[in-house]
Structures are given as structure tokens and as C-alpha cells.
Amino acid sequence: MADSLSTGLGEEKEQEKGGNEKERNAVRIERNKDKDGVTETLGFNDKNGATRDLSLGRFITTEITRGYFLEHNEAKYTERREKVYTCLRIPKELEKLMTFGFFLCLDTFLYVFTLLPLRVVLALLRLVAVPCCGLRGSRLLQPAQVCDVLKGFIMVLCYSMMSYVDYSMMYHLIRGQSVIKLYIIYNMLEVADRLFSSFGQDILDALYWTATEPKEKKRAHIGVIPHFLMAVLYVFLHAILIMVQATTLNVAFNSHNKSLLTIMMSNNFVEIKGSVFKKFEKNNLFQMSNSDIKERFTNYILLLIVCLRNMEQFSWNPDHLWVLFPDVVMVITSEVAVDVVKHAFITKFNDISADVYGEYRASLAFDLVSSRQKNAYTDYSDSVSRRMGFIPLPLALLLIKVVTSSVKIQGSLSFMCVMLFYLGMIMLKVLNSIVLLGTSCVFVKEANMEEKLFDPPPSVASSRQNCTHSVGSGFSPASGVLQPTNRLESTAPSIPKSDSDTFLTTPDEEDDEKIINTDTGLEGDELRHRTSKKDLLEIDRFTICGNRID
After folding, report:
1. Which of 211, 327, 203, 315 is nearest to 258 (CA)?
2. Which of these, 203, 458, 505, 459, lies nearest to 364 by C-alpha position?
3. Rounded to whole angstroms, how far apart are CA atoms 469 and 537?
4. Which residues contact 119 (CB under 8 A, 6 or more apart)?
5. Where is this region: Disordered (predicted)?
6. What is the pLDDT, as a whole number, of residue 316?
7. Residue spans of alpha helices (H) in 447-495
8. 31, exposed or middle or buried, with CB in 10 Å at 0-12, 13-18, 19+?
9. Residues 263/249, Cβ–Cβ less than 8 Å
10. Which SS3 state, helix, strand or coil, does residue 523 take?
């Protein structure tokens, strides 16, 4: 009897609970209807089991009145809006980088015409004065002076070899070819130029090191003369290659229907297809940015050469300059537009912020500032060549050849004009260097890269890691001055604290969560991915032959 009563009470409670839930659901549905309007879907049964109205009018009414709420997926729409803002910021940030890189290349290019001849003259005077003064114990030439003399000899020999090349004959030979053939030739020349730039600086660096290597080391090279001949051959061939490029561009400018110029400009838009749909990281984008800076500066010099040759043919008539002006503007505009579109979509597809171009500027500025220190291990012009692939010697050689063949110097007044022009170039070089140095210091300070300026060169750092320091008596070289280090509590070898192995110049968001290994002094993530990450300061011209993905 008791069991039956308890069972009945349990069933009544369950029925009450079920009834309460039904009432709550009914009240909730009524509230939703009052708040949002009619949100019912056609084809469902109502409470009584009857089928709702499936008329066309009901369907149209539902389509017109139904709504949705974007705030339900706020994160996604916020991300889309930020991508739009990033694309809008890309032109400004990219042009800041391009402008800074352009003046870096201009500074290196002007160095060949202004300061390099003066340095070569000073080095030759020292070479003559030291034996005459009886200073046998002193070194004849410093390593930097040896490199300057080699550059001067290379320029003189290549210029004498360029005198046997007939520009007019090359122009008419190229002009006689068909449009399609010229288009193919121009594309081949662009690829060859990147290959020459990639291998050319290696040849020059090998020559400089072979000529200045300490004599006490074991000889592991073929000699200075073979390296010098290879460097001369490279500069000459690269100058001929750029001359053919300039001649092809000149033919395109002088064609009647401008079809060749249009085809050559469309080749820039083909570059978008080959770059946008690839996977890019920040390092790869930095390599592409350096290549674009070098390409843009080279195109400006080629346009200058084309204008000089055309003005010479029309007896320096200023009216003809306005005839060339629209084509020049069209080429420059297409180049800028392609770069902006390419970088905008690369950053969009790879989720890269526009602030990364500020880091790129800081890395380029770091090269300029570090080359001005006493413990610098390379010249700034060579540093730009390694970073961007811009080698100024062949381009400067071609410009000297074109100017000397286009401008006739006769009389004392002409020589005075040449001297004034040379002094003006020196003033422009000095002013550009001062402004660049001040701007670079600001960029380095904003990126918190000042500590890296006092780090020793890579070879010195590696030698320091192999040696052990005694307790309390160590010395650390910084800025060429020996300074006492802090007393250590253990005899373990000291590892220089530098953030040069980090991926970017600014810390990532996950840096606070990384754990430092006390045995090695390296972070856990760095130990696992050390081979896959590179510092921006280590990126050089090795990838200008294409957008290589590591």
C-alpha cells in the first residue's frame, strides 16, 4: 500500500514538472514573437498539429521581414574590418619604406661618383708617400683603402672596355627585331639581371677578402689576380646587360604605336599573379621589399639613360622632353601601382600587419648606423649591396659611358661647368648622408635596437663563446673599447646577451609566455624553431632571384 502511494506521488510530480516546462516554453515563444516579430518558418506544424500556410505571399512576407544580428559574430566582422584598414594603410607604409630605400640606394650610387675617386686618390698618395718617407714598419695601405683601389681599377678597366661597344649599332640591331621577340628578350634580361646581382657581390666580396686577408693564415684561395680578373669580367658583362635593357626600353619609347611599351608595362602586372597567391612570412616579405626597392631605383636610372639618349638625338631640344614626359610618368605610375597592389594583397592573404614595414625601415637603418661605428666590418655601400642586391658599379659605369658619349666637353667653360657639377654632386651626397644618418638613428631608437649596435661582429661573437672567462677579471669589447665585466659567481662560459636571434625587431605577443632554459640561455620556442627563424638583419640579396619561400 505504501509503495503504491509513493509511486503515485512520483508520477504526479513528474507530470507537474512536465507541465511547468511546457508553460515556460510557451511563454518564451510568445516573448520572442513580441520582440522580434514573426520568425516562424514555413513548412512546420503549429501546436494543434495543423499545417501552416504555405502560400507564396507568406514566403515573400517572411523573406522581406526576417532579420539577423551581426553582433552574434562580432569577432569575424571586426577582423574583416581590420583587414580593410590594413589594405588602406599599405600604400602609405610601403611608400615610406620605398622612399627611405630609394635614398639609401641613391647614397650608395652617388658614393661611386663623388667620394670613391677621392678615396682612391688618397690611397694612391699614401702608397707613394709611405716608401718615400722611409716608414717601413707601417702598413702601406689599410684594408679599406685596398678595397677602394681595387674598385677604382675595376671601373677604369671596364670603362676602357666599354669604349669598344657601339651603342648606336646595338640600338638599330634591337630595333629591327619583332615586338614579340623584344618582349621575350626583355624578360630574359630581367632574369639575367637578378642572377648577375645575386652572384656579383659574392665575386666582389671574394676579391676584397682575398686582397686583405692576413698573411699569417694558410692560403686557401687561387690568388688576387684571378679574383680581380673575375670581378672585371663580371662588372663588364653586367654593364653590357643593363645597356641592352636600356636600349630595349629606348626602342619601346621611340616606337610609333607604343605597343612594345604597353607589353613591357603589362609584364609588371604579370608579377602580381606570380607573387600574390604564394605563402609569405615576414622575412620573405622583407626580401621582396628589398628587391622592389632595388628594381624601382634601377628603373629610374634606365629612364634617365633613355631621356639622355633621346635628348642627344634631338640636339637637346627642351620641347622633346615634354614628348617623353607622358611615357615616363606612365611607366613610373604602373610600377608604383603594381607594388601597392602586390603588397596589399600579400599582407591580406597572409595576415601581416602594416606595421611590419616600420620594422623593415629600422633594419635598413640599422645597417647605416652600424657602418658608421669604429668597429664596423664592412663599408656601407657593400652592406646595401648585400641586403638589396643593388650593385652600383655596373650601373654607374653605364651612366658614365652614356653621359660621356652624349655630352661633348669643349673649352674651359665646359670644364668649369663639369667641376661645378661635380661639387654639386658632392654636396648632394653629403647632405643626403647627413639626413639619412639622422633619420636612421630615429628609426633605430624607435625600434629599441640600440643595444645591438654594441654587439661585436658575428666572427668575434663566435670566438667569444668558445673561450672561458676567469672569475671577476673578464673584459668585454664594446665599441672598440675594453671594459671590465661584472664579477661572476660561477666559472661557466658567459654567453653574450643579445636578441639578434629573434625573428623580428619587436617582440611578439607570445614572448611573455616563453620559458628560458637556464642551461643554454635560450628560450624554449627558440630551441625548437631556431633553424626556421631568421633575424631581419640577416636577410640579404640571396632571394632576389625570385620570391623563395624557406
Report:
1. 327
2. 505
3. 29
4. 145, 148
5. 1-33, 482-512
6. 85
7. 458-466
8. exposed
9. no
10. strand
Q: CA 171 to CA 134: how far, in whole Å? A: 55
Q: Residue 394: count other Cβ atoms within 10 Å of its Cβ.
A: 23
Q: Are 545 and 372 in contact (CB under 8 A)?
A: no
pLDDT band for position 298 (50/70/90)?
A: very high
Name the phi and psi angles at 58, rounded to 5: -65, -40
Could you report the per-residue pLDDT of 465-486, keeping only the tens digit for each? 544 443 344 433 333 333 433 4
Of 171, 222, 290, the residue nearest 537 (C-alpha)? 290
What residues have CB less than 8 Å from 477, skipping those under 6 apart? 375, 456, 460, 483
DSSP letter string over 297-323?
Answer: HHHHHHHHHHHHHHHHHTTT-HHHHHH
Count of other CB atoms within 10 angstroms of residue 311 = 16
The Cα 268–Cα 339 span in angstroms is 9
Distances (CA, A) of 39 to 35, 59, 95: 10, 12, 52
Cell of 450: 640600440
C-alpha span between 536 and 397 (Å, rounded): 31
What's the pLDDT tens digit per position in 96-106? 999 999 999 99
Q: Give the max Cα distance, the chain.
A: 136
Q: If you average pLDDT over every residue of the chain, what do you get?
A: 76
Q: Cα separation of 463 and 459, whole Å? A: 6
Q: For residue 405, give the amino acid letter.
A: S
